[in-house]
Design a protein that fits this description.
The complex is a heterodimer. By secondary structure, chain A is mainly alpha-helical. Chain A is built from 11 helices and 1 strand, in the order H-H-E-H-H-H-H-H-H-H-H-H. The longest helix of chain A has 32 residues. Chain A starts with a helix and ends with a helix. By secondary structure, chain B is mainly alpha-helical. Chain B has 28 helices and 5 strands. Chain B starts with a helix and ends with a helix. Classes of the chains: A mainly alpha, B mainly alpha. The interface between A and B is large, with 82 and 89 residues. Strand 1 of chain A pairs parallel with strand 3 of chain B, so a sheet runs across the interface. Chain B: Belongs to the CPA3 antiporters (TC 2.A.63) subunit A family. Chain B: InterPro entries: ComplexI-like_HydComp (IPR052175), NADH_UbQ_OxRdtase (IPR003918), ND/Mrp_TM (IPR001750), Proton_antipo_N (IPR001516).
Chain lengths: 312, 688
């Protein structure tokens, strides 16, 4: 019991320390690709500290939902990544580490953020909430197909992370199998949609025509905003961890925890390079082209599923 | 307590309902007394009955409840038998009736001296009574009788505000659809009775006789159509979005929470008792019907509603779709001998049935509370209610989270088990490719449904409870009375409890599967490791949801400490929402319910065929707009392309043949008699 609590604590500390780093890396890479110097990779940390020190401006229209939403959003993201250990040695108690729990907790965080967007009574917030809920609903089928595939191929029909990790540990050679590659491609598209990146959303814009996530949190300031940003960093890491540990399990079964962690971070860095490349080479889609984007993700994931079950 | 005593207790509860009905009728001179009497009787009887039914489900082997009344009518016996399945449904009825009756104490007060309260109380109690007797009857004729009674009384209750045009239209559609459904059920029951080759309509006699496959297929299709009409499966759903919004709040809570669940009972009873073997296609048909209903229900509920109760009605269609897809998977699982899969599907069906009953009645009562205090059901006129009625808003918020399947509330656990059923079926049928493709499509559709439900309830809660009040009515809202709040509170507590303690509910459901099919989820011979990850108690590895919620609480505590640490040197300033420097913000600038769901309408324009009309009167210059009107409408595709042509055909057919068959001449009518007589004689001389 004490060991598993310790594991959870280690996991929490690790996540809190490394999550903003990868957002910084993506920004830096984008700048490099555009031949700019770019901000330091540690800029997200400076931003968080700055925001925590600042005073808050809270709209007088809002209710308690607005005030708790950032913390709930942060908590659900943190909980989700807790269920998904970064290295296999950190697998905690199997009682609730379930992929479906992760998905529905992320939904909970999103519900709170969308309600907070509506709570301010401004048109921006409502628009952002509506679009955010739409985008997440559109990519949900692809996400579920991926989850069903990885959990049903274990042979014991379990969505539990520890049994999926167990299966992955004994199948690390599957990293370049067609199933994993298809699922990886689909998951990359989901990652882009869920962490509000180009081509689905533009994280650096403040123009009402293109904003999705930013419009929803437009009214937030100070530590509220810090928690939301941290939540977004962590949420991005949830999807990246899923990809790194389950879909490309190269070196996942290494016994030494520090080498394992190093390999994990290298894999995440590789994924950030992919994300940055996608961001540089595409333009933001029209809102009503996002269904096509989601449909492609869905079809790729279904192909992965069919490869796993019918063409085996 | 012996079985006999229990039977007496059960009968006493029924009598109390009856007393409630009669006393309400006889105190017509004072609506207050009549309201109090009828609701007190209902509260007392249903509270007692739910405890009784829990006892019955817990100690299933020891207790038998079968009240029999002797009578002298040939071929018709008043025989009742309460097995575990009936007990489970009586439990659902009693829980929902308990909270809804509490709610009615205050809710009915806005009808005082405007409408006949005593008739309402009379019908209300009889309605509940008819449903209880429906699930306890062990005779086809009795079942049909109470089914009819339930439908008829609910028609009167829907038609309560009968001077309004929309109410008349809605209740007319309801009664037509419900009778169309009953016709199919009657036909199916007739076929069942025909196959048993006896005049005994007892359930036990039917389950002992075997029904030939051809007839069984026909019976099942009839039952699916008949019960599907009551459940609101698409395309038989048309009555639901009309009837629920116009019925009084407590009645829609009862109808959506309980009455439409009677179809689940009916189909389970028929399938498990009378038709013990089924081909695969029954299951796939039901699964497809369920999934289609789920998807279309939620899509309509998101995109085409501004009336809260209509939104909830469409959402009921969606949830019944989920339950029916569970039944589909149960039937598919039954073609194999995998008892684990059957038990899992059974658990999914019954767990979602009880959870939906609780949270949907909570949400309908919430809508009733809004209507009671704001006098409107239109979301575009609400807003900011969370500040005017904080307690009720909190309870309704819990309902919204539950229906969006947020852990650890009860909606999550049933959705979780439905997905587990899908995944297990995929593994079990992994060699059957078409079936796998069906399952993965179903899973994808159901997952999208889940996300859209969240969208839908963000819309409902965000528009009507948050932001600024959009009308004078919304500004003058006050917290509803204590009984209403208590009712909402109990329901939302149940939403949490049924989630956190779901393993006990699953235990109760296990007793049902054990009695009907001789299998259990808890002790199938699957190995522990395979079993360990399901949130069910197997004695070794315990349920996850309790620990999950404990961890959520722990993590919240840590975050709270963190915030306390961070907030030391900062101030909070209250200021207006940012208005882009434009002008003072007003409620009309807020996002509306129509606008919130516009993206869905545009993406699914093939289904909705949205139609908008913008007229602008310009002032002294272009862009100086004096007046503008915007109207938006969507098409009801199923009504327009399925029902309307059919109705048109019937009307034109009857118009054409009205004078050809019914000429008004008595000679022709005599000729009809004669022809029929000859035909019948011929039939019997050749066929009989």
């Amino acid at each position: 019991m004490i060991v598993s609590v310790l594991k959870l604590l280690v996991q929490i500390m690790l996540i809190l320390i490394i999550a903003p780093f990868f957002t910084g890396v993506i920004k830096k890479l984008k700048s490099k690709f555009q031949h700019k110097i770019g901000l330091s990779v540690f800029q997200p940390y400076y931003n968080l500290i700055k925001l925590c020190k600042k005073d808050l401006v809270v709209s007088s229209v809002t209710s308690w939902i607005y005030n708790v939403a950032p913390y709930i959003y942060f908590m659900t993201s943190l909980f989700a990544v807790l269920c998904l250990p970064v290295v296999h040695q950190l697998i905690g108690p199997a009682y609730f580490t379930d992929l479906l729990v992760i998905v529905y907790l992320l939904v909970a965080g999103r519900i709170f953020m969308a309600l907070a967007g509506l709570d301010t009574g401004s048109a921006f917030g409502g628009m952002g909430s509506s679009r955010e809920m739409l985008v997440s609903a559109l990519v949900e089928p692809a996400l579920f197909v991926i989850i069903i595939t990885v959990s049903s191929r274990t042979g014991i029909a379990s969505t539990n992370v520890s049994s999926i990790y167990e299966y992955t540990l004994s199948h690390t050679e599957a990293a370049f199998s067609p199933i994993n590659l298809l699922l990886f491609a689909s998951m990359l598209m989901i990652l882009i949609a869920e962490s509000s990146r180009i081509p689905v959303d533009d994280p650096s814009t403040h123009l009402e025509l293109t904003m999705v996530h930013e419009a929803m949190v437009l009214e937030y300031s100070g530590r509220h905003l810090a928690f939301i940003e941290m939540g977004t960093h962590i949420k991005q890491l949830v999807f990246m961890t899923f990809m790194a540990n389950i879909l490309i399990p190269i070196g996942f079964n290494i016994e030494n925890i520090f080498i394992g962690l190093g390999i994990y971070i290298l894999k995440i860095l590789a994924i950030t390079v992919l994300v940055a490349l996608v961001e540089i080479n595409t333009v933001k889609l029209r809102l009503y082209s996002i269904p096509n984007f989601a449909a492609i993700a869905f079809i790729i994931s279904v192909l992965g599923f069919l490869t796993c079950f019918i063409l085996k | 307590m012996t079985a006999n005593n229990l039977t007496i207790c059960f009968s006493i509860c029924l009598v109390v309902y009856f007393i409630g009905a009669l006393s309400s009728l006889f105190t017509f001179s004072s609506p207050r007394v009549s309201n109090k009497l009828s609701n007190s009787c209902a509260v007392a009887a249903s509270g007692f009955l739910s405890i009784l039914m829990i006892l019955k489900l817990l100690f299933a082997e020891k207790i038998s409840l079968s009240p029999n009344f002797t009578n002298n009518i040939p071929f018709f016996s008043l025989s009742f038998n309460i097995d575990n399945l009936s007990a489970f449904f009586i439990l659902i009825i009693s829980i929902v009736t308990f909270v809804v009756s509490l709610f009615s104490y205050t809710y009915m007060s806005h009808y005082f001296f405007k409408r006949n309260i005593s008739i309402f109380g009379f019908l209300y109690n009889l309605f509940v009574l008819s449903m209880i007797l429906l699930v306890s009857s062990s005779n086809l004729l009795l079942f049909l009788f109470f089914w009819e009674l339930m439908s008829l009384i609910s028609y009167f209750l829907v038609n309560y505000e009968n001077e309004k045009k929309e109410v008349q239209k809605a209740s007319r559609i309801y009664i037509i659809m419900t009778y169309a459904g009953t016709a199919f059920i009657t036909a199916a029951f007739g076929l069942i009775a025909y196959c048993t080759k006896s005049f005994s309509f007892e359930f036990s006699a039917i389950s002992n006789s075997s029904i030939p496959t051809g007839y069984a297929n026909l019976i099942y299709v009839f039952l699916l159509i008949g019960f599907g009409t009551k459940a609101g499966l698409i395309p038989m759903h048309v009555w639901l979005p009309y009837a629920h919004p116009v019925a009084p709040g407590n009645i829609s809570a009862l109808m959506s929470g309980v009455m439409i669940k009677m179809s689940v009972y009916g189909i389970l009873r028929a399938v498990l008792d009378f038709l013990p073997e089924n081909p695969m296609w029954w299951g796939t048909l039901t699964l497809i019907a369920g999934v289609v209903s789920a998807v279309f229900g939620v899509v309509y509920s998101v995109a085409s509603t501004i009336n809260i109760k209509r939104l909830l009605a469409y959402s009921s269609i969606e949830n019944m779709g989920l339950i029916f897809s569970g039944i589909g998977m149960l039937l598919i699982a039954r073609t194999t001998d995998n008892s684990f899969l059957i038990a899992l599907a059974m658990t999914a069906v019954l767990l979602h049935t009880i959870n939906h009953a609780v949270f949907k009645s909570l949400l309908f009562m919430g809508a009733g509370a809004i209507q009671y205090s704001a006098h409107t059901k239109n979301m575009e006129k609400l807003g900011g209610l969370i500040k005017k009625m904080p307690v009720a808003s909190l309870f309704i918020f819990i309902g919204c989270l539950t229906i969006s399947a947020v852990p650890p509330f009860s909606g999550f656990i049933s959705e979780y088990i439905i997905f587990q059923t899908v995944i297990n079926s995929i593994i079990w049928f992994s060699s059957n490719s078409p079936l796998i493709i069906l399952f993965i499509t179903a899973a994808a559709a159901l997952s999208m449904t889940g996300a859209l439900v969240a969208f839908c309830f963000v819309k409902m809660y965000g528009i009507s409870f948050l932001g600024m009040p959009r009308s004078v009515e919304a500004e003058s809202v006050k917290e509803p009375g204590k009984p209403m709040l208590i009712a909402l509170g109990i329901s939302s507590f149940l939403c949490v409890a049924l989630g956190v303690f779901s393993k006990y509910v699953i235990g109760l459901i296990d007793n049902i599967s054990n009695e009907l099919m001789n299998l259990r989820l808890l002790s199938t011979d699957w190995s522990l490791t395979k079993f360990a990850h399901y949130p069910v108690n197997n004695g070794k590895l315990d349920i996850s949801i309790g620990l999950l919620s404990a961890f959520i609480v722990l993590l919240s505590g840590i975050i709270l400490l963190l915030v306390m640490f961070i907030r030391k040197h900062t101030n909070v300033e209250r200021y207006n929402t940012w208005d882009c420097g434009y002008t003072r913000l007003n409620p009309k600038i807020q996002y509306s319910a129509t606008g919130f769901s516009k993206s869905i309408r545009i993406i699914l324009r093939g289904i909705f065929k949205p139609n908008r009309n913008l007229t602008v009167t310009e002032g002294y210059a272009p862009y100086n707009i004096k007046k503008g009107t915007y109207t938006m409408s969507t098409e009801k595709v199923i009504e327009k392309y399925l029902y309307a042509p059919f109705i048109k055909f019937i009307i034109s057919f009857s118009k054409k043949f009205r004078y050809k068959i019914q000429t008004g001449s008595i000679h022709i009518y005599l000729l009809y008699f004669f022809t029929i007589l000859i035909l019948m004689l011929l039939y019997y001389s050749f066929m009989g």
